[in-house]
Structure formats: C-alpha cells, structure tokens
Specification:
The protein has 234 residues and is of the alpha/beta class. It has 7 helices and 11 strands. It has one domain: 3-Layer(aba) Sandwich (Rossmann fold), CATH 3.40.50. Helix content is 26%, strand content 26%. It is globular, with a radius of gyration of 16 Å. 49% of the residues are buried.
Amino acid sequence: MKFGVVVFPGSNCDRDMQDSLQNDLNQEVIMLWHKEKDLSMFKTEDCIVLPGGFSYGDYLRCGAIARFSPLMQSVIEFAQQGGKVLGICNGFQVLCESHLLPGVLLRNANQQFICKNVYLKGVGSDKALKIPIAHGEGRYHADEATLNKLEANNQVIYRYCNENGDITAQANPNGAIRNIAGICNETRNVFGMMPHPERATSDALGNTDGRIVLKSLIINAKAVVTEKAALINI
C-alpha cells in the first residue's frame, strides 16, 4: 500500500511521519502539498495521513482553515469512497472540522500545552501502549448522544490509561471526555487520534509502541475489525 502525507503551511510532523513510515515500517510514502488536488495515484486500500502541527497557523480554530484547502476537498471525497484516512493531533482536529469525524478538540483542561509520554488502551494490544502527546487543544468533546453512538458502534479506538492499563481520571492528560484519545468513523476507514504514534516507531528512541498503532489501524486494517468486541468494555 501507499501513504500520502499531506503538508499544510504550519505542519511540523509531516517529516516525522514520512521517516516513520518509510524507514521504520518500510512503506511507500508520497508527500502531498496542500494546494494539490489530484489523488488519482491512490487506491482505496492506500492511506492519506494528516500530520500534526499548526496548519495555517491554527487561526480561527485548530484545523478550521485547513478544512477548506484544495487538497482536503479531495481527501474528503477519497474518504467518502472508502479510502483510508489517518489524522494525528492537528490532523485529528482537521478531520473533526471537516466532519469526517464527530466531535471537537478543545483547549486542554489545564489551559497549557502538554508534551510528554502517555499510555493508551485500545486497538492493537491488550497492554497499555506508551505514546507521546504534544498539544494544547487535545481535549476531545462531543454531546451525550454522539458519545453514546460512538460507544455503541465501538468507534472509540483509544483511551488514556495508566501504565497498568487502568482507565482513570488521573491518567487523562487533557480532560478529554470519557478519556477518549482516538476515534474512527462508522465505516472504520477514517481514524483520528491526538497522541503521536510516529514518534514511537524507532529503536533508536527506545520505544516502538507506535508501530503497533500504525500496523493495527492502517497497515493491517483487519485488526480494527477483529478487535471491535474487545473495545466494548473499555
């Protein structure tokens, strides 16, 4: 499969994602400038990645301007046709602004930018996964009806937990409702998460838990379906 990594003005994790996919996971990567529109080189089994950063300076709201970029119109169509789309951090914000995923990302509960390792529970492993976060607006929020629908459809793919895998308020770094760190759409081809798996795929960094995330969600997509039952009780 191929990966297309979108580059917006203000993206700063695009090369991290490229390096992770190419060098750590041996995947083909094509960098995509935000003014492009042509995604004809990608098939639905391929994946478009919206990386972290500060797209268009994060003016108005995080991801609000990127949602209207020329390339995002093509990404929306690609997703609607069944193509895989992964949004990380600012990319997650763009997906919510584009209505490819429900909900919003609000200012962290402590009103501060947070950059540290956290633990996640969800797709890919029965054990807690150590994945870095780096965001100021990562507090996932949605109304009660939307949250209940996400739960009923097993669309919550990751929750913040402690090192032992316990989902607690103390393990929640940003105040995200129900400890939600990542979700997917109903058809399970669009994924968004605040933590950065691409920053945890290199042996040189001493942590490769991010490989589990990327392989489970995208490269070996069947894992997302087979683990649906496991997410019900999280």
